[in-house]
């Protein structure tokens, strides 16, 4: 695993592991202060999104480390770009203008796509 991919993927994996765990195990009341959109999305969908984020975090790091299907990390990186593009839409349509983190995550996920092509 090259250094650029390792750094970017490691940061993304840590973020999505944390965020996915919160979405999977916390109640809507506990999530509301951090995620204003949680009231507009059914709780089972929030839980499913959390599970996807946890699996995606593993998919960014484990395949290149183990050598088993390392090209799948490219699909995961593209998936996170698409996930954050959707998150931007959800935030903007709900009137939430706090999208700085989403923009940073799109950029970081996009930065992992290029190095992932050489895995």
Please give a quick description of this structure:
This protein has helices at 3-25, 28-31, 43-66, 72-93, 100-116. With 119 residues, the chain is an all-alpha fold.
Can you describe what's shown?
The protein has 119 residues and is mostly helical. The protein is 76% helix and 0% strand. The chain contains 5 helices and no strands. Helix 1 (3-25) packs antiparallel against helix 3 (43-66), helix 1 (3-25) crosses helix 5 (100-116) and helix 4 packs antiparallel against helix 5 (100-116). The protein is globular and about 40 Å long. The mean pLDDT is 93.
Shape, principal axes of CA atoms: globular
Mean of all residue-level pLDDT scores: 93
Q: Which structural class is indicated by helix and strand composition?
A: mainly alpha
Helical element count? 5
Summarize this structure as a short list of keywords or feature phrases:
5 helices; mainly alpha; 119 residues
Write the layout of secondary structure elements.
Blueprint: H1 3-25, H2 28-31, H3 43-66, H4 72-93, H5 100-116
